[in-house]
Each structure stands twice: as structure tokens, then as C-alpha cells.
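haha ok so turns out i had the wrong file open the whole time. this is the CORRECT one, sorry everyone. sequence first:
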Amino acid sequence: MKNSPLLWEDDKKIIISQEAIKLLPKEIREEIENYVSHGSEMLEKADADIQNLIRLGMAMPAVASLSYIYHRLRTTQFEITMESAFEQEMLTTAFVVTYSRLFVSTTGASRISEKKIPKHLKKIHNELIEIRNQRYAHNGGHDSIQSSIEITFDGEVFDMKMNCNLSMHIGGRDEWEELVKFVNQYVYDQIFKILNRLREKTGYKWTFPHGPSPDFGSKPE
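then structure:
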């Protein structure tokens, strides 16, 4: 690239371009080259684990979305109106589909094995996967949605009315909160397990930005 600077800096470090390194005294240049070579060797050792981190990273948006969607389910006020019912249906659909995505095979992202689900959460997990497959991913098949046609005849005209019954948990189910906490904890446990393995492989500490989880999921009193 023409007119690119030989060096520049940000808040934490000074970056030296390849062109600038060539201009340094031989002993300094050799020290930098050895440093770069050593770093490349460590990265080669770490490559498989880095790829696993990338796959986990692709699952993290779904994990974060799941927490937020559940928060919205718990805090959105429900009224006896079609708009409010549709909003609950929209949020429930988003929750069920997002949760299920974490357990299905995809290209690139890590999936959570169903064997990892705590025993006391298996039943509610299976119910979510079932309703995803039979109601939210495909039309029909689940007993929470039913439709019928009412026909009346007055001697001259057949009058048809479509009836549709949707069952839903207003505000989401209480048990879903534990599932949200489980997937959050599982993903971060996997990340730090990989970081510990990288430290053992390379002899260096590996860090990952993290902090307290957002306070999503609890329904206000």
C-alpha cells in the first residue's frame, strides 16, 4: 500500500510495519524475527483450540439473544387484545427457535450436546424441541394449536367461520429460566476450559473478555 506509515500507535501499543523492521539494526531485527517466529509456533500449536473458540463464538449471539428474549417475555405486560397475544406469540416463537438452534448441527457454530443437559431439565428441554419441530418450524401437528371450521346454513347460504385456538404460556414458563442460565454457563465454561488447555499447551496465559451476565430472566415482583 502506497504512503502507508512505517509505524503508528494506539492507546496501548506501537505498531511497526514490515518495512520499518527492515530498517532496524541487525541485532534488534533478529530479536523481533525470533519473537515473531516463536509466536507463530505457539499459534500453530493452538490452532485446533482457536478454531473451537471461533465455533463457540458463533453460538454466543444466540445465547445472548435467548437471555434477552426471555427477559422480554417476563417483563412485557399482557392485555386481553389481539396485539398483545400476537406479541406473546412472536416472543415465544423467537425463544423456542433460538433455544433449539443451540442444539442442532450447523455449519461453523458449536452445538450443545443434549447429553450435557442436567437431568432435572431434560423434560422441559424435550418439550421445547418438540414444540419447535411441530409448531414453530412447521405448521400443524402440535396439540397447542388447533383449527376448525364452523358452518351454518340458513336455507340459502352456507356461512363459514374459521376458528383457531392457540395455547401459550403468558410471560414464558418459569422453568425456561433455568435453561437460559444453563446454556449461558455451559458456553462460558467451554471457553475457559479451552483457555486452560491453551495455557498447558503453550506455557502462556490466554485471556478472554468477560463480565457478569446481563440481569435478564427474572420477572419483576
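The helical segments are 18-22, 26-75, 82-101, 122-136, 176-202.
again sry for the mixup
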